What we know:
mainly beta, single chain, 25 strands
Amino acid sequence: NRNDTFIWRDALKRAVTDRTATYTDWRLPNVKELRSLLDETKYSPAIDQGFFPAPPNVKSANFRYLYQASFWSSSPTLDYSGNTDTSWDVNFDFGMNLGTPRTFTRYVRLVRNAVTTKYALAVDNIGTGSGTVQSSPIGITCRNSCAVGFVSGNNVALTATPDAGSTFAGWTGACSGTGSCSVAMTQAKYVAATFELNRWSLKRGWNLLGNGVNVDVSVAASNFFGNKVNVETVWKWNPATSKWAFYSPSQPDGGAAYAAGKGYEFLTTIKGGEGFWVSAFNTFTVQMPAGGSAVSSASFNSTPRGWRLISTGDNLTPNQFNRALTTTVLAAGVIPNNLTSLWAWDATNQKWYFYAPSLEAMNGTALTDYISSHGYKDFAGGTLAPDAGFWVQRP
């Protein structure tokens, strides 16, 4: 509200040297910032006087109000003749801006950048597995430990994405559970994301397992299925030869001689994307191989007709797996006939899960009715997990 006016160059200098309220970061606003103070519902003056007191009343001989309440901006412009020695000013009487020669004098209204308080959000990735935690708004992309400052009052959403061969086990700290994580930044916060390596969980009896990671598994290794205390036999179907491959840790040669005598193949390796059966003496767990990439469901879109015992790593439902086998874009709701049937085994209840796209395509309750009438189990939205094997019949 001072009556000082300045030519444009001196207005810039005045901003640099101003020490109002002991601050040292005053500056001349650009024209957009200055115009944002206009109240276009008002006139003479076109500004909210409740927040901004009436400006000095300096009259001109020719235009009574033209020079009243005109303030310099820092924004340069060209005048009508192409003169580059002009800058924008904003007139708070008429509510408009003009390109004005810099030798003219105008008032000055100084601004400072907003000072925002930030709090640190620290994130740790813990557990035996691995994965990535990302934030929205952007800032955090964390695979180990990291900390980023976010503006006070913001809500930061965290998303945990496990690597192939790992599972997200849950949040601790400012979040809990395995669902979404939203952190209100009212103070410094800490969140830990637990990733665990996938494990095969076996029950006593027959278990249908799968290797949903592109890493080979040596069945005879002691850390896999070479333990004769827990494992009776391991079986894998070879669709190329239509034969079973066999392994048994209780036999000195792993069952090679027995397999040859019975017309089986000798089983040594479970490759990524393959399913297999294990007959177990006891209930136990085995850590799945670390590293590698997840086996994509789409990688099976060119498999020939017949039965396949497979495994995937992208956690799709049977419906999504069926759609993934189509190489063209499908309209929403379309159910392709890429499968005759899909089967997974529930080792706990000794029952089959069943899915058939032809029955699902009938809509209504055709699929669930068939499942119920045959004593099968409905997937009910469940996914084909990376540790599970399942049978697929291609038409």
